Amino acid sequence: MHHYSRMRRRYENCTVIKGNLEITGLQSPDLDLNFLQNIEEITGYLLIGLNYVKIIPLDKLRIIRGRELYRNKYALIITLNYNKQDPNLGIQYLRLQKLTEIVRGDILVQDNLKLCHTDTVDWIDIMNKASRKSDNWTAEVSGNAQPGSCPPCPPSCNGYCWENSPPFCQTRTSTICSESCNGTRCRGPSQNDCCDKECAVGCTGPRSDQCVVSISNITNLYKNNFCFQVCLHVNDSGSCELQCPPKHIYDSAAYEYDPNPNFRYTYQDQCVDECPENLLIEQSGCVKSCSEGFRDDDNGMCVPCTQCDGIGLQGGLLANEGTVNARNFIHFKGCERVNGNIVFQSYVFRGDVYSSLPGLTVEQLTEAFKSVREITGYLFITSWPRELRDFSVFQNLEQIGGGNLWRGIAGLLIQDSISPIGPYYLSHVSQRV
Question: How confident is the model at residue 423 (pLDDT cuts 50, 70, 90)?
């Protein structure tokens, strides 16, 4: 019951699942699952497995986007929902009568011995036609209840249903469409019934603002419930579009880009005028954290990291160098992301009289590396200034990526007695010895 209670607290009154929904291990047949009835959208995958309840009431679920797939393959998995000891226990009906769009991913409905009407659902109709053709998504349905053991579909369902009652007829919006629809969804078989190409689920008319409407409460953006179209990509004030209005638009007469007065940020599947306060702005989108190559400027913006070449990087400015030294240290000044390796050989700090190379000073060292946040290769230190016995020079270093490991084994190698103090923000080293 703890598992059930936790699931109920998590999903009650939820309309959009940002991620995956896994309904598993509900082995008491009398559990009340009506708390699932408000879910309309899942951005990841839906897994239903090892349950003994009779019905899964996802009555309002319209779309599974498949942005994350189970085992990198499946968007919908329904399997092993029966009791081996008691053959009378197991899922008998899927109340998915509103589900008309799986954007990407395979379907697997297998080994549900009590589950009826798996043969009266047009699974291919649910799958996005363009995505299915380009990525070869398939539907595998086998090992479920025998058709003869289940009641037939009502006559009004024309042979397609989720349950033997008229409210549970399957609504088909793809396989019934005219060829003139060119793979879009439709509301009927006529060539005048085609939906706009950006509509997911279905439509009430041919325009991009006539896609099927869903009701949701997005509390982070709006104070009240609002109507919004169910779109394949983004919703821009009630119209389904491929992308939100860009920051700049091209002026063909002046041969230049001008600021777009209608620019809007992309937040999840919506176009918004401002990003929520808890998110950062990266280019034209609202993000939780900056992507690789960008950093938070402490003002809510992700800005490009200043990059430089590491020691010995093939094709780089320091390709022929074997160590940081007093002549090349300036190359790293202001650098935030080092592409390659950082190496300090033993003679660097005392200098080399044979090549007239002066010693690298602590001031030069600090000036060069105080801004570095990431080293994509390895950090190799064979000696360190005697007056500086810690890592505080790398005061902002957060990550040593280990894309190129020292002798294939180490991302961080220190051959000197240095205090563990600093770098203060280092949170990841690929491998170390």
Answer: low
Identify residue 56 by its one-letter amino acid code. I
pLDDT of 403 over the 80 cut = no
Q: How far apart are CA 54 and CA 111, in angstroms?
A: 15
Whether 399 and 363 have beta carbons less than 8 Å apart is answered as no
For residue 32, give Cα distances in angstroms to 26, 28, 60.
10, 10, 17
* Tens digit of each residue's pLDDT (9 = 90 or more) over 87-135: 889 999 999 999 999 999 999 999 999 999 999 999 999 999 999 999 9
Fold of 2-168: 24 nucleotide stem-loop, u2 snrnp hairpin iv. U2 a'; Chain A (3.80.20)
HSE at residue 329, side-chain half, CA atoms within 13 A, is: 21
CA 296 to mean position of chain CA atoms: 20
pLDDT of residue 36: 97
The fold for domain 305-433 equals 24 nucleotide stem-loop, u2 snrnp hairpin iv. U2 a'; Chain A (3.80.20)
pTM given for the model: 0.77
Burial class of residue 413 in the structure, from the number of CB atoms within 10 Å of its CB (0-12 exposed, 13-18 middle, 19+ buried): middle
Q: What is the pLDDT of residue 432?
A: 47
What residues contact 375, with CB distance under 8 A and at least 6 apart? 310, 338, 340, 341, 342, 397, 399, 400, 401
CA dist 173 and 169 (Å) reads 13
Exposure class string for 99-119: b at 16+ Cβ within 10 A, else e:
bbbbbbbbbbbbebbbbbbbe
Interatomic CA distance for residues 264 and 381, integer angstroms: 48
DSSP secondary structure letter of residue 220 = T
Selection from 241, 185, 184, 232 nearest residue 209 by Cα: 241
